[in-house]
Amino acid sequence: MAWLDKLERRLGFLAVPGLMRIVVGLTALVFMLVRLNPDFRFVLDLNPARVLHGEVWRLVTYIFLPQTASFLWIILFLWFLWFIGDGLEQAWGAFRLTLYFFVGVIGTTAAAFFFGARFSNSMLFASLFYAFARFYPDQVIYILFILPVKIKWLAWVSAAFLLFGFFINSNSYRMALVAAFVNYLIFFGPEIVYEARHRGEVSARRKRFARQSRSEAEPLHKCAVCGATELSDPNLDFRVSRDGEEYCMAHLPRAESPAR
After folding, report:
1. What is the pTM of this model?
2. Less CB within 10 Å around the terminal CB: N or C of the chain?
3. Which residue range(s) make up the domain with 175?
4. Residue 40 neighbours by CB under 8 Å, 6+ apart
5. Given this model, what pLDDT does residue 257 score?
6. Per-residue confidence (pLDDT) for residue 170, from 0 to 100
7. Same domain, yes or no, for 173 and 230?
8. 183 and 80 share a domain?
9. 180 and 86 in a common domain
10. CB atoms within 10 A of CB 175
11. What is the structure's pLDDT at 16?
């Protein structure tokens, strides 16, 4: 996108190389601190009321607050976050990944402040996952190191649940969901709209081609008696009789048959 290119030329120095590795490291640190003192998580989560009372660190610390207390799940989560972070940085570069991430942070924070969402950082990391699925749809991962699944299918299943929640919940939830995914909509929305239009145009062209193909396959001549056409036998000759019907020479009425 042209505007991203311009922005990168002007603000490229703000890029944070290895950003997701930093996030992984800080999340691991916070996980250990919460394991030592479970009440510590309530000092770090995104609570708009407490932020308005001066606890501004919550605007940042909630990013690193793990959503599990299990060692197994946090290891899997951090490995996957590292994995998709490296993939996105390779596809985008450090600046665009940094921009995408912090626009997501702003969107998630806005969802909490203006619409009362309790997403914490789950939607932020979900937006990273969907971005990865756009770049690497056929990447195969092994669920629990056993079941091979392509990233795009996991993304579709996850998106189906989000859409279900979008339709059954309140308007405030819908607005919060849109705000939380504002980074994905900004970066991929125009591309998705273009692809949808392009698919429609391709479908229309295919239908026109199919209609033309069918018309080209229709015979120009057809015998009213035997049904033979120039397609079934290219050597046949046809004549139109006085009754207005078309016949092959073998079935042309005798009175009109050419003399031999």
Report:
1. 0.74
2. C
3. 14-198
4. 33, 34
5. 52
6. 82
7. no
8. yes
9. yes
10. 16
11. 94
